[in-house]
Amino acid sequence: MESSNDESQAHQILDHHNKTRESNLVNLVALICISFILVSYYYKSDSLMASSIIFKQLFDQASATYSYLLAEKASRQAVFIDTVYEQHKRDLSLLRELDLELLACLETHCHADHVTGAWLLKHTTDCKIMASEHSGIELLDKSLSSRSNVPFGNQALTVIETPGHTNGCISFVTNDKLMVFTGDSLLIRGCGRTDFQEGSAKQLYHSIKDDLFALPDDCIVYPAHDYSGRTASTIGEEKALNPRIGGQANENDFVGYLENMQLPHPKKLDIAVPANIKAGRPNNEQLPKQPDWGPVTISYSGVTEISPQWVASHMNKVHILDVRTTIETGEEQTRIRSAQLIPINELRDRINEIPKDKPVMTICRSGKRSVLAANILREMGWKKVANVSGGLLRWYDEGLSTIY
Ligand SMILES: [Fe+2]
Fold first, then answer.
1. Mean of the pLDDT values across residues 162-166?
2. pLDDT at 151 over 60
3. Are residue 244 and residue 320 in the same domain, yes or no?
4. pLDDT tens digits, residue range 250-296?
C-alpha cells in the first residue's frame, strides 16, 4: 500500500511539474508574440517619422497659420502644405539649409485669412502649385481630386476631398495613414466656418464624419490653424472630444451649431481671396527685391548674412565692424585691414562712431556675437547691415587676408 501511495504521489508531482512547464512555455510564447507585435508597431510608426521623413510644422503668428514641410530623407524631395506669403524668406532658407528639392506647394483650399506663398516658391524653386480642381485657384500646375497621389521620393500623400468649409477643400494623408493635414476642414476641437466661399455645414459634416473619421484613431491631425497654441490632435481624440462633431453629435447638432455662430467677417477676406485665386502672385509679378548693395542671404534663424569672400573682394565699398572684446583682440592681434574695432559691450555707447555712408559688415571670432551687433545697428537705424558668415574663423579658413 505504502509503495502504491508513494507511486501515486510521485505521479502527482511529475504531473504538476509538466503542467507548470507547459504553462511557462505558453506564457513565454505569448510574451514573445506580444513583444514582436509591439516592436513591429513601434517600428512601423517610428520608421516614417524617425528614419525616412523630415517633417517641420511652421507657424505664422499674424494669421495663426500652420505650414507643413515634408521631405523624404534619401532623395531630399519635398512638398510644402499651405505656405504663407510673408514667410517666404523663412521657408526658402529652410529648404536651402536642409538641401531639399521642393517639388510642390500644396494648398488645402483657397484661403480667406492669409495669402499663400506658393507663387513666390514656384518662382524661386521651380516647384509646381497643386490644389483641388474646385478650389477656384487659377494658376495651378496640377489639379487634385479624390485619391490623387502627390509623390516625393519614395513617399506620397493621398488626397481626400473634404468640402464644406469651401467647395474646394482637400486633406492630405501620408501613405501609412499616420498623419493627415486637414486644412480648415477639421481643426483641433473645432472646424472651419461654412458661411462664405460656397461653404456648406451639411457637406462639412459628411466630409468629417464619413471621410476623416474613417482614418485610424491614432492618425495625427495637423490643421491649417490654431488660435490657442495647440499643435496637433488625433482622429480618435476629435471623434470623442470635438465639441461640434465629436461624441454623439448628429448632423442636426452640427449644422445647428455652425449656422448660428454669427462670426465676424474675416479681416483679410477681400485681399486674401483675390490674391489666392492667383496662387499668391503679386500684382507687379515681381519677386521681393534683393538688396542692391550686396548678395545677402537670410538664414532660417532670420539673420542677414554675407559671405567673407564677397566682403574681401569689396573692401572699399563696405565698412567692417569687428566687435571682439579687447581681451580677444589683445591675445589674437589678427584683424582685417581697415576694420573698426568696437567691442560688443561698448557698441551701444559708441554707436555714433560707426559711419552710415557704407554698408556695415559685422564680424567677431565665430560670427555669433556679431549677429547681435548687426541687430543693434538695425534697431538704431542702420539699414544696410549684414553679418559676415562664419566670422574670422571662416575668414582664416578661406585664406583671406588679415593684418597684424
Ligand atoms: Fe480657410
1. 97
2. yes
3. no
4. 999 999 999 998 888 777 788 899 999 999 998 888 887 778 899 99
In a domain, 40, yes or no: no
Inside any domain, residue 273: yes
Q: How far is the CA of 114 from the centre of ligand 1 (A)?
A: 9
The answer to whether 311 and 388 have CB atoms below 8 angstroms apart is yes
Q: How many domains does the chain have?
A: 2
* CATH code for position 327: 3.40.250.10
Any idea what the CATH number is for the domain that residue 190 is in? 3.60.15.10
Q: In angstroms, what is the span from residue 375 Cα to ligand 1's centroid?
A: 35
Torsion of CA 350, 352, 356, 361, to 10 degrees: 0
- 34 pLDDT band, cuts 50/70/90, is very low
Region of 235 (left: φ > 0; alpha: ψ -120 to 50; beta: rest) is alpha
Determine, yes or no, domain membership for 229. yes
Dihedral, CA of residue 158, residue 163, residue 164 and residue 165, to nearest 10: 60
Note down the domain range covering 304. Answer: 297-397
The CA 164 to ligand 1 mean position distance, Å, reads 11
In a domain, 282, yes or no: no
Which residues are registered as beta bridge partners of 294?
A: none
Place of cell 518662382: 123
Residue 191 CA to residue 203 CA, distance in Å, equals 12
pLDDT digits over 102-117, tens only? 999 999 999 999 999 9
Cα–ligand 1 centroid distance for 274 (angstroms):
13
